[in-house]
Specification:
Number of helices: 35
Largest sheet: 8 strands, parallel
Length: about 750
């Protein structure tokens, strides 16, 4: 045995001298002579682990543990090797046994805590870090990691407590200040977080990470110029840090400095071709600029870098559907639902909404995307004559939301209500912007303000009911509502689904879009209006321009089916039906909006693949609303889409006198056109299923007298119907506002509200 000891001692000397191969030979010789020699087995296992041969290390360390079953060091090192060999649960088990053998050994507890954290099991990591801190309150790494684990576990308040405890022990630690700042940021206490970051920088001015955190806090506070300076300081300290360029690019993108942001994203990618954040930011930039195929390529790269084919499948699929590339459609929804069932965050809840046929799926996607509620107390509403309604949107300009809303604001009861507009979208100098701002008692451009400042402004203005007109559509500011902009918060008009969170108290609907029993899938309580939930503007202008079929490419003698919905709403099941309809109505054409050239080309290709001459698909560009409404006169019948219906496009068609054929779907988004048809007095155009939809479309093309009667109804009674009666609509909406305000004044929680018709 002494000879084997000599071999081991000599092998250790060789390790120190850098002769790894020689040391390994001696360890193996010792083991060959004494197969249960603990020191030889253990040291060879350590050597193999340190040189990256983890599977082999596990074998020798396991033998060492069996040779000395009461030795905690063998199991501690075995745990590290098992984790490196990608056997994490066995690693946890080995470390657990080591802790049982030596419950007071800090390094073993710390190792298991670090392993839990690396596995994303942050609650268990925090428990172990707490044990380390209890044994040694001065253990700075454990104090820091405890705070970080609690932060990752979604408990920023407990993370702050841990950071405060660490700060009391290590008051000069810049790292503690930084972690404390991170906890404060997560709690929405941005000014305090900024103070901590600045204290960290004062102690350690050359740590780039501190400047990056300061930049993030400044950006969230709306102090964009200072944030950019902090990013530049971090980049000066670490000029090859791709992440700093990616974050700077994202801020520049949000500031609409698109060219500068492209420069930053491209620099990040040049420094690190695997920088996911830079590709994702550049993709968002490209998408906003209308470069959909290029954006799709960058999102595909993000998915490849993640090594997860499901990652961002909802957003990638949405872009594909915008260009009518349906290659993901057969599997997309099932993969999205699988992601949601395991709690994977979605890229876009709206992208899910536009393909889903399930309210449960829609709500789950929204819940995963929604910002966490932050605790802001809403002061009690003071007694006053008027209820203050705050409308929040990025779309107060020539946009579909404003097309619907303008007349509603203009017809408000000014003796009972005050209207306050909060705009976080383009400051466009157009007629709709002027109408909206003029209809409000106060109007604020809050683009430069962070979410907490917007919510604070709303509370300072005494808003009683905050109305979110965006939900999770592009440009939303859901974070404003997570901070309680008002005592009552309402999801209205922009997002036809539940936002999935308890800080939105109500959603405005009707009994068609949310049928009896469907309330169960909505986190909000439902305000049921008596007619259609969608408002309309009866004063919108139809141009006097007389369009000819020839100038739009429509044949003079054709029966013209049209659909002016966005291209992402056109999916294979409905397109199949459209092509069968064209096959059964030989003189018919299908008139569509040309959203983008790839969509046009793909739809033509899809038509050819179904045996239809692609010349029968006619594409027209977007034009101003008044002209577009006048152009409707050339169409005979509007064909709706499913699972996401025509919404504003449906009311436009009906206002312009074009009958619309829809099929009632299973979700709010798929039942809007049915709601509008009921309100305009044409329920017979609501098909119960797609087979009936197809049959009705063919029948109406062969029954000119029936179609003429439908057009006559729209011409004579349509604009006088509840759908286009803005004053009637406002009366009902304001009754709802008054009732939910009264309930809160009485100390009652939100509940479903049904408003009776006139």
């Amino acid at each position: 045995m002494d000879r084997e000891r000599d071999k081991i001692d000599k092998a250790v000397s060789l390790v120190r001298a850098g002769d790894i191969a020689g040391a390994e030979r001696l360890f193996r010789k010792a083991i060959a002579k004494a197969p249960a020699h603990f020191d030889a087995l253990y040291m060879l296992g350590v050597l193999l682990h340190r040189t990256g041969r983890h599977d082999e290390a596990v074998r020798f360390l396991s033998r060492a543990a069996r040779a000395q079953p009461l030795n905690p060091d063998a199991r501690n090192t075995l745990g590290a090797a098992l984790y490196a060999a990608r056997r994490p649960q066995e690693a946890i088990d080995a470390l657990g046994e080591a802790i049982r053998l030596a419950p007071g050994r800090l390094e073993i507890l710390l190792n298991r805590a670090d392993l839990y954290a690396a596995m994303g099991r942050f609650d268990e990591a925090a428990t172990d870090y707490e044990s380390v801190v209890a044994l040694d309150r001065g253990a700075l790494p454990a104090c820091l990691r405890l705070a970080e684990a609690r932060l990752h576990a979604g408990a920023p308040d407990r993370a702050l407590s841990a950071a405060d405890a660490a700060l009391s022990i290590h008051p000069m630690s810049a790292d503690v200040r930084c972690v404390r700042g991170n906890a404060l940021c997560a709690l929405g206490r941005l000014e305090e977080a900024l103070a901590d970051y600045e204290a960290a920088i004062a102690s350690a001015p050359n740590v780039a990470g501190f400047h990056l955190n300061r930049a993030q806090a400044l950006a969230a506070l709306g102090r964009s110029g200072e944030a950019l300076e902090s990013y530049d300081k971090a980049i000066t300290l670490v000029p090859d840090e791709a992440g700093a360029y990616a974050e700077k690019g994202d801020l520049l993108r949000r500031l609409d400095r698109r060219e500068d942001s492209f420069v930053a994203f491209n620099k990040a990618i040049a420094l690190n071709p695997r920088c996911e954040e830079a590709y994702a930011g550049r993709a968002a930039n490209l998408l906003e600029a209308g470069y959909r195929p290029e954006a799709l390529r960058d999102y595909e790269t993000v998915a490849e870098l993640r090594g997860d084919g499901n990652h961002l499948i909802d957003l990638r699929g949405f872009i594909r559907r915008q260009i009518c590339d349906w290659s993901l459609v057969p599997e997309e929804l099932s993969r999205i639902e699988a992601n949601l069932s395991r709690g994977a965050e979605v890229g876009s809840a709206f992208a899910v909404l536009s393909v889903s046929g399930s309210e449960e799926t829609n709500a789950r996607a929204a819940r995963l995307l929604a910002p966490r509620a932050l605790s802001f107390e809403s002061p009690p509403s003071p007694a006053r004559e008027k209820i203050r309604i705050g409308y929040f949107s990025a779309d107060f300009y020539d946009h579909a939301t404003s097309h619907l809303l303008a007349a509603i604001l203009e017809n408000a009861d000014r003796a009972a209500f005050e209207l306050i507009g909060f705009s976080f979208g383009p400051d466009a100098d157009d007629a709709y912007r002027r109408r909206i701002s003029s209809a409000c008692d106060e109007f604020y451009d809050v683009r430069p303000l962070p979410d907490d400042a917007v919510a604070r402004l709303s509370r300072e203005k005494g808003v009683d009911i905050a109305v979110d007109l965006k939900g999770f559509t592009r440009g939303h500011r859901a974070g404003v509502f997570a901070r309680r902009a008002a005592p009552i918060q309402v999801n209205y008009l922009g997002y036809p689904a539940s936002m999935g969170v308890d800080y939105m108290d109500y959603i405005v609907a009707d009994r068609t879009v949310i049928p009896e029993g469907a309330e169960a899938h909505f986190a909000e309580k439902v305000i049921f209006l008596p007619d259609a939930y969608q408002p309309n503007d009866p004063s919108k202008r139809v141009s006097d321009t007389v369009f000819g079929r020839a100038e739009t490419g429509l044949p003079d003698d054709a029966f013209v089916y049209c659909c002016f919905n966005n291209s992402y709403k056109v999916l294979p099941p409905v397109f199949d039906i459209w092509m069968r309809i064209l096959g059964k109505v030989p003189r018919a054409v299908l008139w569509l909006i040309e959203d983008n050239a790839p969509a046009r080309d793909n739809l033509r290709r899809e038509a050819r693949s179904r045996g239809v001459d692609d010349a029968r698909l006619i594409f027209s560009p977007r034009i101003p609303l008044a002209e577009h409404l006048a152009r409707h006169r050339l169409a005979d019948l509007f064909l709706d889409t499913l699972p996401y219906n025509a919404h504003t496009t449906a009311s436009d068609a009906l206002f312009a006198g074009v009958p619309l054929l829809t099929c009632a779907g299973p979700t709010f988004a798929g039942r809007v056109a049915a709601s509008l048809l009921k309100a305009v007095g044409l329920p017979e155009l609501i098909a119960e299923d797609l087979a009936e939809y197809e049959a009705l479309a063919v029948e109406l093309a062969s029954r000119p007298e029936k179609l003429a009667a439908l057009r006559a109804h729209l011409e004579n009674q349509g604009r006088a119907s509840p759908l286009f009666d803005a004053r009637r609509y406002v009366r009902h909406l304001e009754r709802a506002y008054a009732e939910i305000h009264h309930r809160r004044g009485e100390g009652l929680p939100p509940d479903h509200i049904r408003i009776a018709g006139d």
